[in-house]
Design brief:
Blueprint (H helix, E strand, L loop, with lengths): L1 H19 L19 E2 L2 E2 L1 H9 L3 E3 L7 E4 L2 H9 L4 E2 L27 H9 L5 H4 L3 H18 L5 H6 L1 H11 L3 H13 L7 H24 L5 H9 L5 H15 L1 H14 L3 H9 L2 H15 L8 E3 L3 E3 L2 E3 L4 E4 L1 H4 L3 H4 L29 H18 L4 E2 L22 E2 L1
Parallel strand pairs: 4-9
Antiparallel strand pairs: 1-2, 3-4, 5-6, 6-9, 7-8, 10-11
């Protein structure tokens, strides 16, 4: 009976979409056809992703919208889509009608912005994320990691590594970088995971976007009067009235979302991968800098926690990979699929192999003008956190089999909410 009612409700929603168009913030469920890029079997993309990649360069998702959505799963095809700045737009605001849980004013940041605004905003924050500028954060990150490992040890064997280490390390780092007040952090943190969760449709995820940005708007307004010590305060000192509260909140939002949930997922899932093989655990524990770098890069490729790139909207009718697409159609690049393309990765792409020598670099951070601006910060945190974790706890092990862990079922950023470990 429950499934019959659910099916009836979904049919009503489909008819409404067909009649009035789509407002993503009001979409109460995710149609089955769109779930494949977000689904996994353990740490692996579902086999359907590989099947699509082997069959066609571009797969149309069967959805009841007035535009088409195409999924690209190959490496070279994804790079082509992500590099082409002239044929596509990343501006998603036309998908919000203004009367739902989230409106177009709630959507911003570099990922959903086109040049020339994107170019101007990215230029403002890029200097903060150079290797030279990031180097000053290394002592602070080490202190944060060590304090969180102390907390894990104090909790005792069987403690949750996700709660005590994987989540707080990037969260505290990004809050310090932005200059967010400590009293705001607990409430702010709770909204981080919700905004990537598509289980209950667009309404829940974009509602979290709206609430989280309220914190950022308040912070920007407060620091416009009294700039703080972090990135938000520095931008206000440099730009003044030349940058609006909306644009600055969008920038801060992009830095936060790109630097928190993704790195948290990598620390937790990376730990699971390394515990599979004592040789790889020892490599991250006792290896050289080059060894650690090699492990981190392969983890980024293998896990691809950001499952799809920002949606790209065709600006005009065109022929793409032999298929006609129309202006307004959406092209999605599957980063998890591209990073396991044997044409580039080599043999056995489904295996973790830090000695792999692929033909080209992975796409874990995206590609082109929308490549993650915090990529080097993420690498730094992983290079610090994972070796220190395995050095501190040489007998680290999962407290339950991987099959019993609660992986996220439908999230744009893949992860695990709890990771009990023994040590």
């Amino acid at each position: 009976m429950k499934s019959r009612v659910s099916g009836w409700v979904r049919a009503l929603v489909v008819r409404r979409i067909q009649k009035k168009g789509i407002d993503l913030s009001r979409l109460s469920f995710i149609p089955e056809a769109t779930k494949v890029p977000l689904q996994r079997t353990g740490l692996d993309p579902v086999p359907r992703i590989a099947e699509i990649r082997e069959t066609t360069p571009m797969h149309r998702l069967d959805l009841p919208f007035d535009f088409n959505i195409y999924l690209v799963t190959g490496y070279e095809e994804s790079r082509r889509i992500l590099t082409d700045r002239d044929s596509y737009s990343n501006d998603i605001r036309h998908m919000f009608h203004g009367d739902g849980p989230a409106t177009s004013d709630d959507i911003g940041g570099l990922g959903f912005t086109d040049p020339p605004l994107h170019t101007r905003l990215r230029k403002i924050v890029t200097p903060e994320f150079t290797m030279r500028r990031l180097a000053r954060l290394e002592p602070m990150i080490k202190e944060i990691v060590d304090a969180r490992l102390d907390a894990l040890e104090a909790e005792g064997s069987g403690a949750d590594l996700a709660k005590h280490v994987a989540f707080p390390v990037p969260f505290q780092t990004i809050c310090a970088l932005l200059g967010l007040d400590f009293e705001d952090r607990d409430a702010f943190e709770k909204l981080g995971s919700a905004r990537f969760d598509a289980t209950n449709g667009g309404a829940a995820a974009f509602g979290a976007v709206s609430e989280q940005r309220e914190f950022l708007f308040a912070t920007v307004a407060k620091q416009r009067k009294e700039p703080g010590p972090g990135l938000i305060g520095q931008i206000l000192l440099d730009e003044g009235d030349m940058i609006s509260d909306v644009d600055l909140a969008g920038l801060a939002d992009g830095v936060f979302t790109g630097g928190f949930e993704t790195t948290a997922g990598m620390i937790a899932l990376g730990t699971i991968v390394l515990l599979r093989d004592p040789a790889y655990a020892d490599m991250i524990r006792n290896g050289s800098k080059d060894d650690v770098d090699r492990v981190v890069e392969e983890l980024l490729r293998y896990l691809s926690v950001v499952q799809v790139a920002f949606p790209r909207f065709a600006k005009q009718d065109m022929l793409l990979f032999g298929k006609k697409i129309k202006a307004g159609d959406v092209v999605l690049a599957s980063l998890s699929g591209a990073n396991r393309d044997p044409k580039v990765v080599g043999e056995r792409p489904e295996e973790f192999d830090p000695f792999r020598v692929p033909e080209s670099g992975h796409l874990a951070f995206g590609h082109g003008i929308h490549r993650c601006i915090g990529a080097e910060l993420a690498r730094m945190e992983l290079r610090i956190a994972l070796p220190r974790l395995f050095q501190r706890f040489p007998d680290l092990a999962l407290a339950k089999p991987q099959e019993e862990l609660s992986f996220r079922q439908l999230s744009f950023v893949y992860g695990v909410d709890e990771l009990p470990v023994t040590f």
